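Let us work through a complete example step by step.
Step 1: write down the sequence.
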Amino acid sequence: MQLIERTARWVDPKTFQYLPVWYPEHARRSLFYKANWSEPQMNTNRQTRVTVHKSEGNVHANKALTLALGLRSDERPNWSCCHIWGVDDAFFQMSNAVVQDRRFFSCVANMVLLPTPLKAFTDVMSEVKMLLRVCARHLYGWSCDHAEVAALAAKVEGWSEWDAYPESWPRPDRPTIPLGTASFSPRIKIAADGRLARIHHDLVNAGPHYPRDEVREVLAYWKVAI
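Step 2: predict the structure and record it as tokens.
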């Protein structure tokens, strides 16, 4: 945990307040479209020649976190976007309903940037992920309210096991800012304003596959005015 404490990169709470969710049109496994949401984007397997509709993995979560940290993608080689809230499954056999939800997939309070080797800890060690969730709860004043993680959220709210919890991370009696937090800056504000403008444009002008109803629901959930 000390290694994660020293290296993790967190979004500023002010950035989260300014724009909680950056790509409400996307979620894990959502389908990709081209030509301004007018045509399916297809992938063809080079060996089997089978063509399938391309779907989201972690592309727009990565973009959201990169922009909210005030970075460019080429400034973070060998770093990985880690979702804090999700369905814990060390064997990757369960469907992850949390990140398949547009409300939480590109939510910047639901992500932290870690050196890629350390991401393995959050993938397979529930104890590590719980401490990240506790930190996010006290840093952003937010816990995920998806039904799939209701029991975990209750544990976070009542958390009292502070022995392994990093010293610089916030607690109920200690409203600190973690090491590695990227302060809200003009660069981040410009990026957030650009995303808001693009969302507004797409709600009006994007092609027939743009998920307008879902996007409006996400913005309403986060109380983002468009």
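Step 3: interpret the result. The CA atoms of residues 21 and 107 lie 4 Å apart.
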